[in-house]
Design a protein that fits this description.
Layout (H helix, E strand, L loop, with lengths): L6 H13 L2 H15 L3 H7 L8 H7 L16 H8 L33 H8 L2 H9 L14 H7 L3 H21 L24
């Protein structure tokens, strides 16, 4: 059964994740999970803010001292862009919300908001490479598409975050090389559906 959270409790969780209030977030999660008889992961999944964004979305959007891109783009709606621009620039406790490895992946890591974007989409939109690396290492899927059929790589490319694009391309090349040595074809499991090539870097939405 899903936890029964009040609007105030959800607002608190979203704020703590957005502002990087590690201790408060951890304490509140533990308290609510114990009260509701559920896991902390289930509390995180149930806590949805405006636009169905989770705590993980908020933390990913505000994963380092660089704020999300302020320029409008085809990759995201104006409403969501404005929402991201309002995020504070303090580090957020991403690692405290994630499994310790991709083998322990939890469903909420790929949770979508009202626009179909995951936390990885928002991290790519903001150009937060450290957060992108963390999410990928904990099992976030780079192949999940939003409502505009855009994968996280697309948001990085559309907003000019080429350091993030380069990371995806390097990962793809490394996986291709490993598979070739092992006699396999295509990308490794979990990323084989991601079409990453040089033309994606300059691709615009039609």
């Amino acid at each position: 059964m899903a936890p029964n959270l009040s609007e105030e409790e959800i607002d608190d969780l979203i704020y703590f994740a957005r502002a990087g209030e590690d201790a408060e977030l951890a304490w509140t999660l533990k308290e609510l999970a114990a009260r509701e008889g559920v896991t902390e992961e289930e509390v995180l999944e149930a806590a949805r803010g405006d636009g169905q964004a989770t705590c993980l979305h908020m933390a990913a959007a505000n994963g380092n001292s660089t704020q999300a891109s302020s320029k409008p783009s085809n990759s995201i709606t104006t409403t969501e862009t404005e929402s991201l621009q309002q995020q504070q620039s303090q580090p957020a406790p991403l690692s405290d919300q994630l499994p310790s490895s991709s083998e322990e992946k939890t469903p909420f890591i790929d949770a979508k908001n009202a626009f179909g974007n995951t936390a990885l989409h928002w991290a790519c939109l903001g150009g937060h490479l450290d957060v992108v690396r963390l999410l990928l290492s904990r099992g976030a899927s780079p192949a999940v598409a939003n409502d505009k059929d855009q994968i996280p790589l697309d948001l990085a490319a559309f907003n000019g975050h080429m350091h993030v694009v380069d990371h995806f391309l390097a990962q793809s090349r490394d996986l291709e090389g490993a598979n070739a040595r092992g006699g396999d074809e295509g990308l490794a499991a979990g990323t084989k559906d991601v079409k990453i090539d040089e033309q994606d870097e300059g691709e615009e939405e039609g």
